[in-house]
Amino acid sequence: MREEQKQLSLKRLFRKRWVFPAIYLSSAALIIAGALWFQLGKDENTGKDNVAENGAAQQENPAVPVNETVENIAMPVLDPNAVQVKTPFYDDDASEQEQEAALVFYDHTYHPNQGIDLARQDGKTFDVTAALSGTVAKAEKDPILGYVVEINHEQGVKTVYQSLADVKVEAGDTVKQGEVIGKAGQSEFNKEAGIHVHFEIRKDGKPVNPIDYIDKPLTALTDQAKDRAGDNRAATNKEKQLMPSDETAPTETEQTPADDNTTAPSDDHSQQNEDASSYKTPDASIGMARA
User: Fold this and answer.
1) Which region among 144-148, 157-161, 187-191, 226-230 has the lowest average model confidence (pLDDT)?
2) What is the 3-state secondary structure (H, E, C) of 168-215?
3) Does the keyword Membrane apply (predicted)?
4) pTM (predicted TM-score)
5) What would the pLDDT profile of 2-48 be if each residue is shown by its tens digit?
6) Three-state SS annotation for the chain
7) Which residues face 153 on adjacent strands?
8) Which tens digit of pLDDT belongs to each residue from 223-240?
């Protein structure tokens, strides 16, 4: 009896119009909810994997701060307007007059100046500062050059400060650009300059004219070195192309023999010529600063 009543109740229920749409909507809602739950779980796992991968990548490649300032090479003094160039840099491409002004006379020999000598107009001493941030490689007294400080920088650049009266740094110290490293003094090497500082910039051990790179970044020195290397390679290749072949080279029989009656000049006369030339020609070894 009860079963018949249940069946009658179900038949009455299914006869109503809203029953089947309600069943369809409920089923659809369950299916959609299941799909969303599955997708959310998958996205959460993927996000965790991405976070782990990004964290490992950041550890391998640490971020570089975008606001990091690039230093430009500065004059090695607190007030650049208070000093003047006493002795300029010796440039092989300069005029004869400019080259003569860049010679330093010491020990009966003219030496090309490998840097610039800076002095005050009133002849007084002044503070000498680091032209760039770096690490002090040398800080010691030289009997001829005075106190000498050498600072290593990035990209194979080194700055040299000579003729100092004293020093305030030691080898191994880290200095900032503009930090006082000593005071200008005198040296036996260039007495005519008076109280001054001798300042050099070297790129891979070779001196360059500091005036050409003041207020410029280190990349200017790197670009200059690349251009110079390219010019040297081009010149070398051109020389190889112009060299005569072995067939056109003169043989020993084609060379003009020396006259047997020709007599060599006396040793005394040769010695006089050598002494005279030592005062007129700059020393090729360039002894301005000892490495």
Assistant:
1) 226-230
2) CCCCCCEECCCCEEEEEECCCCCHHHCCEEEEEEEECCEEECHHHHCC
3) yes
4) 0.59
5) 666 666 666 666 666 676 777 777 888 888 888 888 777 766 666 56
6) CHHHHHHHHHHHHHHCCCHHHHHHHHHHHHHHHHHHHHHHHHHHHHHHHHHHHHHHHHHHCCCCCCCCCCCECCCCECCHHHEEEEECCCCCCCCHHHHHHCEEEECCEEEECCCEEEEECCCCCCEEECCCCEEEEEEEEECCCEEEEEEECCCCEEEEEEEEEEECCCCCCEECCCCEEEEEECCCCCHHHCCEEEEEEEECCEEECHHHHCCCEHHHHHHHHHHHHHHHHHHHHHHHHHCCCCCCCCCCCCCCCCCCCCCCCCHHHHHHHHHHHHHHCCCCCCCCCCC
7) none
8) 765 555 555 555 555 555
* Residue 140 token pair: 């010691």
Q: Position of tokens 């891979």?
A: 204
Q: Residue 235 is encoded by which pair of tokens? A: 């010149």
| Tokens describing residue 155 | 């990209």
Q: Which amino acid is at 9?
A: S
